[in-house]
Recover the amino acids of this structure.
């Protein structure tokens, strides 16, 4: 596929709040992006010209925010709305190998939907959630830079341009980000199937960083995971906020060229990588 | 899943209901004339025409005296049965509606009536109202009385402050403004404008901190949105009593500062984060004077393309009013009247219902709907429902365009169907927006609202006649000449300077261990790290925050001077924001205190590389009926105006909050200043953390013996005496310009302004934020000490160290660029303004000497620990 033929949908409802910068990232790596309200996909309350189909798109990004206020549990409401009206289309979308990305609230929604971690191959969506993003250990919202280590061994399609073991700075901004699974065996299987993408670390490189380097206290410091095929990824920190170097909290110390190119931030590689995948494989 | 469908159904139902109401409304508005004419009360022959009286030179005691005679004798004489009620008639119209025979009421009864209704009109104002209805030959309805109470409240009509604003603040550099309506609009870059607004939500926050703070943000965001701007940043200057106030020292009815602070922070966090606008700046100031009446000021800045600029006035006759957003409820009734009186023990019980209930997840789509309507050119005017609700918004939209309006109250979407017409008319329920539009656009407007599940309804139309006419179920319930209700009284209130002990020169010994004094200052509540708060706010959403509130080495950050945004993707310009005021100066000298607030704003913006473009003022003061408070207000306004005029900078917008006094007395005068600065290129943005060992340190600006209201005197337990810092706007302007020029030329690696705690605190903060040490020698300073102080001889070392003189920065200059930097100062006015201070060193220690005398030697980690740990300790949480 050519870059110019690729179009991403950035999904939003009321309370989604990172859709603009998310769409801007995709456009800046050379593909098209359209911000789409859920109702445009389900056909409720919109005029014909606003109507869209999920299959019109080549990638789906569920952007960050507080969808529907997250009043009962982060991501639960939007996930329920998607599940009730879009399940067949979503399954088709993922089965076709089309990439799906969830950042922050998007990750929470994907876990609620059962599309992550979804550990059986060729099962795009589990009936029930198999993990949960629980309240941070601090008990409240945390907006701070995190150091993320790339721990994926090559499965994830979103990190092709990031070396194994590399540490990057990404912004955490969430209240419910502690990735929990039912048993230690689940974590082991997740690791064995190369579904862990990013873990939190600290300036000393610890695998078990303490607060605030782990902003939420997640076991095994898990910050982001993917499905067994590596085409669906969710992560709590926001790479779109460090797409540009000037989004980094310490760019006035490092300069705008910190080795990746002029004003290129640590987050950009994720978007370049998935577009690599789309242009080569799809 | 369950909850989701409940919510959606609720939304659908509301929209359906709104649509039904809309049909009714359209039909009624379209029909010529009302279904029933409105003999509200027995018609009386019209008397002489009414003329709005401007009340001048009110005697100080008059209102208070009237109040006293009214409440006491009236109450006693009738043994609790208010006699004014004899003159109120219930109308037989099938819904609650009363008329008031004001003619028949005695003065005592008028005052008792005003008080019992909660509209808080003074006797003179009740007389004004009586005169108007006499001229119309009829009795007012409760809707009309309530509407007047709202329109003539201090909060809505600025009756006490207008003369002062006119004298000192209006008319400065206004040619630089694009417009100033609900929010200001100024040029940013090319076709892009920025739109800032600063407001207060003080009284609601003192009663219900969570809801009060949240709805404060909601209100200021709507002001910016209704100009057609996308909000891009929030900032929140907050003021509380000391966090360690003993519980038993609190008067009854006063909530503990820790409770208030927690509630306010949570309110800002939960609302601001949800609505998706980054909270990038602000501050928290503590002073015992805020214990009984905390202050919550909230600022917002939006960005708009010039084509999106929308005015807060209707387009023309025949336009319809479309109501968007939250259904109207009983929350927020009498909010503005509540904001226009002192807080007391009874406020909790009496005024709880004046606090509105916010809903961020209705606000967020309401922003989208409003901006989509504006982008699609579907509306002619737009105004948010602020204090005063429907009563104010409809009238002002029409009046400001030179027209009148007709409103159908029964078309308004309601939370409670049994609300009386007056409640609908004056409710200040949140998350509502009013637009005017050509009738042909209504269908599309309602469609867009429905897509976002935002209730919407047509509620009236613009008419040629300059009257405000309101009908409910076919009955006319209100009719005002717009010039009458929007005119409002104006008071030229008396003022008197309070006695302030300004015994000029205190004598005290220099403490032995100045390092300890520095550590004490770093842990002082007004200096300590607010990281525990800042990190609970999303300051990164929208991915435009170029300089964050905390700056430096990740994990060891220090306090930034200003935040910088890059709000327009296609523009390299940066927008810098800061807010400042030091109540300790204002308390001692409101003129220089206000001037210092402007000075600090200028230097905070310059420190990050920005030139001041506009300022906003939020004047928080006590009861204007007290001459001392009035004097404080006047002096502060004079201070702000003097600085703005000298700097040739316009006030983009402003807000006044009076009656800020509770059981612990009046607040210190608090003229909060918010500054908006522009960076020619965001890439120049400079942070305050030291960056490289070997770099040179310079101090820009003269140091005087400016100790009045300083942290140093506080550390000496001296609460009185000494003059507060003064400022010379000419020197400020030139030196700020030079600091920015040096930054733009790449000659500066770090810059930080000197404020509380002077050079010592500023240098320590720069050091720990950069995880580097600093060596400084103060010997070159103080030569100019005599000029303002009238005190002979060289300055004492401790005074140089901790003086809080204005217009000063510490800058880090790479050794190789030292000559180029110094050359900038080789011209008149600024010659000799730049002092060599020392250099950045690798060893993590701050060392300050004065010639051969050692003053301070303290580890950088110890400084940061003192600064970082103070707030969690006071709040009883882990860091």
């Amino acid at each position: 596929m050519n870059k110019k033929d690729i179009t991403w949908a950035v999904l939003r409802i009321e309370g989604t709040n990172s859709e603009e910068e998310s769409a801007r990232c995709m456009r800046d790596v050379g593909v098209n992006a359209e911000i789409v309200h859920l109702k445009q996909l389900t056909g409720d309350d919109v005029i014909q010209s606003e109507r869209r189909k999920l299959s019109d798109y080549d990638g789906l990004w569920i952007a960050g925010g507080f969808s529907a206020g997250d009043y009962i549990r982060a991501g639960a409401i939007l996930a329920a709305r998607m599940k009730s009206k879009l399940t067949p289309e979503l399954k088709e979308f993922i089965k076709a190998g089309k990439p799906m990305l969830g950042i922050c609230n998007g990750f929470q929604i994907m876990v609620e939907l059962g599309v992550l971690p979804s550990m059986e191959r060729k099962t795009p969506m589990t009936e029930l959630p198999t993990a949960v993003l629980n309240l941070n250990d601090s008990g409240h919202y945390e907006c701070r830079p995190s150091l993320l280590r790339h721990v994926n061994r090559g499965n994830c399609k979103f990190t092709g341009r990031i070396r194994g073991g590399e540490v990057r700075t990404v912004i955490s901004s969430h209240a419910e980000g502690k990735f929990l699974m039912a048993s230690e065996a689940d974590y082991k299987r997740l690791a064995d199937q190369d579904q862990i993408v990013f873990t939190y670390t600290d300036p000393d490189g610890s695998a078990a960083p303490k607060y605030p380097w782990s902003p939420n206290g997640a076991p095994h410091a898990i910050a982001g995971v993917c499905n067994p095929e590596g085409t669906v990824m969710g992560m709590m920190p926001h790479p779109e906020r460090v797409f540009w170097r000037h989004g980094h909290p310490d760019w006035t110390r490092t300069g705008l060229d910190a080795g990746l190119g002029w004003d290129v931030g640590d987050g950009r590689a994720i978007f370049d990588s998935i577009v690599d995948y789309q242009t080569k494989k799809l | 899943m369950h909850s989701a469908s409940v919510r959606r159904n609720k939304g659908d139902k509301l929209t359906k209901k709104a649509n039904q109401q809309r049909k009714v409304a359209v039909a009624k508005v379209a029909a010529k004339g009302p279904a029933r004419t409105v003999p509200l009360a027995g018609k009386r022959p019209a008397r002489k025409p009414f003329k709005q009286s401007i009340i001048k030179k009110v005697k100080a005691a008059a209102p208070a005296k009237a109040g006293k005679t009214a409440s006491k004798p009236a109450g006693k004489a009738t043994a609790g049965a208010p006699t004014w009620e004899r003159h109120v008639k219930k109308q037989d119209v099938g819904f609650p509606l009363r008329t008031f025979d004001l003619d028949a009421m005695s003065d005592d009864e008028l005052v008792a009536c005003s008080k019992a209704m909660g509209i808080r009109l003074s006797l003179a104002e009740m007389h004004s109202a009586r005169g108007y209805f006499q001229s119309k030959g009829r009795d007012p309805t409760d809707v009309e009385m309530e509407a007047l109470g709202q329109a003539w409240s201090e909060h809505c009509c600025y009756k006490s402050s207008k003369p002062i604003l006119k004298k000192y603040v209006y008319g400065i550099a206004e040619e630089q403004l694009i417009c100033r309506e609900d929010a200001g609009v100024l040029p940013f870059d090319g076709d892009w404008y920025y739109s800032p607004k600063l407001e207060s939500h003080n009284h609601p926050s003192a009663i219900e901190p969570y809801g009060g703070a949240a709805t404060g943000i909601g209100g200021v965001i709507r002001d910016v949105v209704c100009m057609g701007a996308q909000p891009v940043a929030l900032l929140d200057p907050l003021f509380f009593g000391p966090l360690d106030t003993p519980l038993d020292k609190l008067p009854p009815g006063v909530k503990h500062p820790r409770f208030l602070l927690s509630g306010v922070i949570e309110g800002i966090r939960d609302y601001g984060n949800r609505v998706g606008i980054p909270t990038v700046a602000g501050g928290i100031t503590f002073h015992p004077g805020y214990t009984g009446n905390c202050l919550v000021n909230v600022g917002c800045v939006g960005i708009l393309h010039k084509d999106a600029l929308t005015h807060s006035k209707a387009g023309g006759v025949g336009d319809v009013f479309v109501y968007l957003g939250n259904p109207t409820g009983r929350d927020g009734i009498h909010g503005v009247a509540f904001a226009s009186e002192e807080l007391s023990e009874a406020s909790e019980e009496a005024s709880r219902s004046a606090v509105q209930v916010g809903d961020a997840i209705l606000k967020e789509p309401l922003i989208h709907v409003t901006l989509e309507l504006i982008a699609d050119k579907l509306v002619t005017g737009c105004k948010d429902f602020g204090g005063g609700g429907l009563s104010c918004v409809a009238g002002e939209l029409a009046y400001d365009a030179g027209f009148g309006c007709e409103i159908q109250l029964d078309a308004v979407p309601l939370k409670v169907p049994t609300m009386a017409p007056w409640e609908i008319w004056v409710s200040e329920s949140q998350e509502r927006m009013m637009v005017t539009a050509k009738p042909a656009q209504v269908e599309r407007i309602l469609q867009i609202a429905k897509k976002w599940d935002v209730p919407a309804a047509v509620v009236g139309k613009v008419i040629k006649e300059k009257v405000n006419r309101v009908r409910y179920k076919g009955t006319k319930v209100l009719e005002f000449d717009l010039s009458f209700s929007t005119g409002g009284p104006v008071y030229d209130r008396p003022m008197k300077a309070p006695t302030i002990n300004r015994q000029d020169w205190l004598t005290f010994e220099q403490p032995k261990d100045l390092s300890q004094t520095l550590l004490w200052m770093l842990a002082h509540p007004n200096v300590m790290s607010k990281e525990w708060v800042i990190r609970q706010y999303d300051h990164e959403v929208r991915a435009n925050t170029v300089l964050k509130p905390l700056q430096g080495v990740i994990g060891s950050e220090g306090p930034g001077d200003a935040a910088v945004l890059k709000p327009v993707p296609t523009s390299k310009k940066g927008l810098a924001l800061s807010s400042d005021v030091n109540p300790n100066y204002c308390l001692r000298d409101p003129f220089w205190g206000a001037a210092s607030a402007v000075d600090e704003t200028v230097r905070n913006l310059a420190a990050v590389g920005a030139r001041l473009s506009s300022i906003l003022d939020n004047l928080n003061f006590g009861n204007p009926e007290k001459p001392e408070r009035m004097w404080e207000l006047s002096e502060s306004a004079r201070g702000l105006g003097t600085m703005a005029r000298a700097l040739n900078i316009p006030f983009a917008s402003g807000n006044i909050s009076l009656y800020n006094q509770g059981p612990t007395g009046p607040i210190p005068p608090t003229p909060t200043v918010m500054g908006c600065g522009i960076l020619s290129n965001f890439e120049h943005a400079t942070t305050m953390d030291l960056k490289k060992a070997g770099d040179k340190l310079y101090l820009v600006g003269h140091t005087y013996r400016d100790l009045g209201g300083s942290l140093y005197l506080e550390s000496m337990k001296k609460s009185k005496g000494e003059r507060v810092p003064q400022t010379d706007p000419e020197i400020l302007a030139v030196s700020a310009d030079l600091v920015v020029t040096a930054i733009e030329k790449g000659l500066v690696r770090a810059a930080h302004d000197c404020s509380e705690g002077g050079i010592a605190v500023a240098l320590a903060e720069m050091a720990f934020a950069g995880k580097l040490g600093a060596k400084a020698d103060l010997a070159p300073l103080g030569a100019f000490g005599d000029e303002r102080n009238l005190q002979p001889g060289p300055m004492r070392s401790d005074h140089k160290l901790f003086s809080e003189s204005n217009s000063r920065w510490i800058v880090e200059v790479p050794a190789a660029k030292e000559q180029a930097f110094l050359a900038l100062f080789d011209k008149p006015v600024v010659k000799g303004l730049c002092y060599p201070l020392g250099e950045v060193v690798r060893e993590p220690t701050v060392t300050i000497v004065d010639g051969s005398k050692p003053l301070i030697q303290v580890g950088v980690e110890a400084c940061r620990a003192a600064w970082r740990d103070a707030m969690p300790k006071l709040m009883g949480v882990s860091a």
